[in-house]
Amino acid sequence: MGTILVKNYAPMPFDKSEILRYAQAKGKSPELDLIIDECIGEVSDKLVYKVCYGEFDISVDKPNIDFGFMNVTSCDLSKNLKDCKKAVVFGATVGIELDRLILRYGRISPVKALIFQAIGAERIEALADAFNNEIKEKYVTVPRFSAGYGDFSVYKQTDIFNTLDCGRKIGLTLNDSMMMSPTKSVTAIIGIKGERDNL
Fold this sequence. Notes:
single chain; alpha+beta; 7 helices; 10 strands
């Protein structure tokens, strides 16, 4: 079993075009731009950027993948990992404050609640991308893949959470319905083909 590590990231720049995309906004407007700026200003110093992760030897025999800590039967995941002998499994979160703001503004400003939802989606993707890019600096990888994608059962989240110790490491928990708290969080698997220096 691999060692589970924790990494904290500094805040990264907000991508307003991505926030607009996640909000499904049809075009930009000065009013909407102002609301986005207000929401960013309200939340920016309340966010955390935390990742816990481990590196594991894997064995792929389509459709089965053995991670050591769990066995998965998934045609989609085994296809993604077919040339890999190792994988990084990680959990990431930007914290609970966005959930609190979404709940509060859901009662008083549905537009702001929607923008906070979009900011949350943009933030967790930015964090996952930042971590993914660091792994790519050392390894040749395949695209990350999460439980719930394709035929990779979302119920494998239990094994991932238990192995990474997400609750203790980064404050990320999972309920019986496989919903994560904080909601602006993600877990994923990054398949490793080899080290860059060796290819």
